[in-house]
């Protein structure tokens, strides 16, 4: 199995994976979406809420705010505390403000400076003149398989496209070039070529447009283009590493006969 990084940014990772099976790649995707513990608001206590947004809706919005997730916290099920509010398994985020204002995530004050919103600009609600909002939110570790609030990233993959062109019979009419939605095809040196094979969506619009049947689009089921787009709780590289650790543990448990599934 070989991995080649194609793109790496603070919140985005794109890599080329070869020598793998569709089952393994899909397991990696599912591990990213469901099996990595991240921090998210799980409980909210309201002391005052004069805004037009109901407590339940505002609590839901707070739950969807991505939080930076450092190492060291315990899952609620692993902690010895009774109420799930100790410093080993939870973080409190407080908010106290008065309108008029647009209340954003940056106003939240965390008990741990490492567990803060990934962005200060997430809108929560709007307060009018004299309206007040005061609350305390409790963030805990959780899994995406239990609720999307704990999903750390978007993860997707596709097979590596295979572009085929038959010189015999091709009239270089250009219909395939015009039909390609991503505008990837061109005619150069009396040939139809594709500029960026990885960006091909395999929609086969070029195949349908070719009157001579000289274009063919297929896929290589042993090569994949994988993308990870982090919501901000942790870097995409760290997300990928944790997903790999999850798969390794699952395989070890399976080989050892441990019921963990």
From TrEMBL:
Its EC number is 2.7.7.6. Residues 161-189, 190-220 form the 4Fe-4S ferredoxin-type domain. HAMAP family: RNApol_arch_Rpo3. Its cofactor is [3Fe-4S] cluster. NCBIfam families: PRK00783.1. It comes from candidate division MSBL1 archaeon SCGC-AAA261F19. It is found in: Cytoplasm. It catalyses: RNA(n) + a ribonucleoside 5'-triphosphate = RNA(n+1) + diphosphate. The keyword Acetylation does not apply. SUPFAM superfamilies: Insert subdomain of RNA polymerase alpha subunit, RBP11-like subunits of RNA polymerase. CDD domains: RNAP_D (cd07030). Binds 1 [3Fe-4S] cluster. GO terms for cellular component: cytoplasm; DNA-directed RNA polymerase complex. Its main location: cytoplasm. Keywords: 3Fe-4S, Cytoplasm, DNA-directed RNA polymerase, Iron, Iron-sulfur, Metal-binding, Nucleotidyltransferase, Transcription, Transferase. Part of the RNA polymerase complex. This is DNA-directed RNA polymerase subunit Rpo3. [3Fe-4S] cluster binds at residues 200, 203, 206. One of its GO terms (biological process) is DNA-templated transcription. Belongs to the archaeal Rpo3/eukaryotic RPB3 RNA polymerase subunit family. The keyword Nucleotidyltransferase applies. DNA-dependent RNA polymerase (RNAP) catalyzes the transcription of DNA into RNA using the four ribonucleoside triphosphates as substrates.
């Amino acid at each position: 199995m070989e991995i080649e990084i194609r793109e790496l940014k603070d919140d985005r990772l794109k890599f080329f994976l070869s020598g793998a099976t569709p089952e393994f790649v899909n397991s990696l995707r599912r591990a990213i979406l469901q099996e990595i513990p991240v921090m998210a608001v799980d409980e909210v206590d309201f002391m005052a809420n004069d805004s037009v947004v109901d407590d339940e809706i505002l609590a839901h919005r707070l739950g969807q705010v991505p939080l930076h997730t450092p190492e060291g916290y315990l899952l609620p099920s692993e902690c010895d505390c009774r109420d799930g509010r100790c410093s080993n398994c939870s973080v409190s985020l407080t908010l106290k403000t008065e309108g008029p204002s647009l209340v954003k995530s940056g106003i939240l004050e965390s008990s741990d400076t490492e567990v803060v919103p990934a962005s200060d600009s997430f809108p929560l609600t709007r307060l009018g003149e004299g309206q007040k909002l005061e609350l305390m939110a409790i963030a805990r570790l959780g899994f995406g398989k239990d609720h999307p609030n704990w999903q750390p990233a978007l993860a997707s993959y596709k097979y590596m496209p295979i572009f085929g062109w038959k010189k015999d019979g091709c009239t270089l009419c250009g219909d395939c070039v015009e039909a390609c939605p991503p505008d990837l095809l061109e005619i150069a040196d009396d040939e139809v070529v594709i500029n960026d094979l990885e960006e091909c969506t395999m929609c086969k619009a070029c195949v349908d447009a070719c009157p001579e049947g000289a274009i063919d689009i297929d896929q290589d089921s042993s090569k994949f283009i994988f993308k990870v787009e982090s919501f901000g709780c942790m870097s995409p590289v760290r997300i990928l590493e944790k997903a790999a650790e999850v798969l390794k543990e699952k395989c070890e448990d399976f080989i050892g006969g441990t019921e963990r599934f």
